[in-house]
Amino acid sequence: MTAASVLAFAGLCVVLAITPGPDTFLVLRFSVSRPGAGIAASLGSAVGSLAWALAVALGLAALLEQSAEVYRVLKIVGGLYLIYLGVMAFIASRRNRSGTGIETPVRRTSLHGGFAAGILSTMTNPKVGLFFLAVAPQFVPHDGFTIGNTLLLGAIDALVGSLYLVVVALLAGRAVAWLKRPAVTTWLERVSAGILAALGLGTIALSAES
């Protein structure tokens, strides 16, 4: 695989990374309560991306292209998970308000929870697998190193995506630390929760129509 091919693929990954999606809003949601958890979610998303690349390299993700039913089921599972994250985030934001009307600090999210959520969010998004399935053959030469080259592309995508999401997490964390207003933090949590739930509902709705 030539350097030009690697750079072209990296450029494509940058374009895809800066396009807001479930992972971006997930990282924002965790970063509001704890920047470290947002970074952990970013790393989890990278691991999930590598897992998809490995699946494609081994030919497992071909099932998604051959079976519309498998694709639909996986999309629905991913949509339900996003709705779950949105509902839990909204419940947590309500708990951050005391009965006296005085807001309490936002509950800190564990690093493990953020990392696990990042993995699950990416692994239940079949579009990541289909991306590798559709794009990788255009960059991987027929030189007998298909698995290695596909994993290299996966590593590039994971690196680009995680770097972008880490920047998002750090910027979100700095903003919250600068404002230091629980009311604003709670509002951001509810907005991100609503976006996650909306993405989940949209995914399920589109899957039902297809």
Automatic annotation (TrEMBL):
MF term (GO), any: amino acid transmembrane transporter activity
Transmembrane segments: 41-64, 76-93, 113-135, 147-171, 191-208
The protein's name in its UniProt record: Threonine/homoserine/homoserine lactone efflux protein
InterPro entries in alphabetical order: LeuE-type
Membrane topology: Multi-pass membrane protein
UniProt-annotated location(s): Cell membrane
Biological classification of the source: Bacteria, Bacillati, Actinomycetota, Actinomycetes, Micrococcales
Source domain of life: Bacteria
